[in-house]
Amino acid sequence: MWSKSHSIVTREVTKEQMWKLFADVNNWHTWDKGIESLRD
């Protein structure tokens, strides 16, 4: 089994802002072009 990861360190957003983005599963497709559609 292959596994791939990618990390970016930034100070442009807070951890709270990142959590809000990742918690909104139904809108991942708006910022992740590898996802066509998704429903929670």
3D structure, described in words:
The chain has one helix and no strands. It has one domain (11-40). It is mainly alpha-helical. The chain is 22% helix and 0% strand. The model has no long low-confidence stretch (mean pLDDT 89).
Describe the SSE topology:
Blueprint: H1 15-23
Q: Pick out the low-confidence regions.
A: none
Number of domains: 1
Number of strands: 0
**Termini distance?**
26 Å
- What amount of the residues lies in strands? under 5%
In short:
The chain is mainly alpha-helical and 40 residues long. 22% of the residues lie in helices and 0% in strands.
Keywords for this structure?
extended; 1 helix; 22% helix; mainly alpha
